[in-house]
Amino acid sequence: MIELVGVGEGKEYEAALHLRKQLLAVWPDLSQHPGDHVKIFVGLKLYGHPIEDIDLFVVGQFSEPREFDIEFKFYPREGEPFVPRRASVRNFALVIEAKSHDATGVRFDDKVASVRYPRGWECVTEKARQQVFELKKYLARNGVPKIYLQDLVFFSGLRESDLPKRPHNCFGIDASFERILNILGQVSSPANNDRRVTLSFGSEDVFDSIFSSETALLQTMEPTPLDRRRMDRIVKAALPEAWLDDLTHRQVVVRGRGGVGKTVILLQMAYRAYDSNRMRSLVLTYNKALVADMRRTMALLGVPHQIEKGGIRIETVHAFVGRLMHELGIIKTYDGFLDRYEEHKATLLDYIRSGALSPDDIESVLQDNADDFAWDAIFVDEGQDWPSNGCCQTNDNLSLFRATHPFPVDFQAMRLAHSAWAAERR
To answer: Where are the domains of the chain?
Structure first.
């Protein structure tokens, strides 16, 4: 049996239908088989996680391993690549990022894939890899631990001949499901049992739990009365049009005593920018607890944050700056990052002031990581806490955070704070 659950329209749903067709082309009996089950979760939402959207989560479990034709050498956990004598699959769990770009909107750096949007390039290879980590956490919280997940990228606008030489985790519109299984043989490090391979991503109990009706992977968040009041304040607010007109052109500073609603005003402006113009905004705060609350509210409102859709992303200042430092090579890992934050920050500012980081270096980071750094507007909560030597605080490094969308935006807006916020125009 093949079951599609979740979103019933859009490119993700079309990709799910295509995969169903390819599955049935290999195993026509699968549509009615009582003991074999494939479930395709379309538009899976990971509420409360930094990455909330999974295009396709494809899970299959068979009562007996199903054999498939061998096309490539397989790459085992240990030893040299080999051509299996026989290959079969017992179960699988695939995290698939679906992209509809044609060849003009896709580039490969060796075998790392990126796609182009108006705001810049997005590395989909890294995006799919990060989705695996978040989905593993999500599954563990929902009672499904100890499962192997494989990330794949489906390019519906490309053919197999448009892709780099294998091995890699991308596939085109003309890839059969047997081709996809052969890709798994290359990228999922299967065990070599005397040149016999059975693909298996977890125990029978683990997969039983995924297919169990008691495991609600497609969760629906129900707003509480408090949630509804927050949503109404954001959606129904009457803001001065002049404030919205100033976005992307001038700084807007909000001042006032504690508790008067300054943070809500920021969210109202970000929401109006998205709702009216599909702008993509970044909201930064030092308050980790506030991040969770604001993300929940945005999720309830159905506001995205992907580069292709606009929307609003909520982050802590440290998370954002840490990612920037990592991309610029200031840090290699995030181990001990917060303990050494001031030291890393001083290094970054020194590199910028000394010219060790050139404008071309910075532009390259922005273009190659548009999902993380391409914003139409930036909002900083509790800006009075921004230190005098914070990143974006000096005149000589403002270009570091220039938005890559055609709007003339830069991160000068992040120099908002000297004291508390007030509603005023500059």
So the answer is: 2-211, 225-416
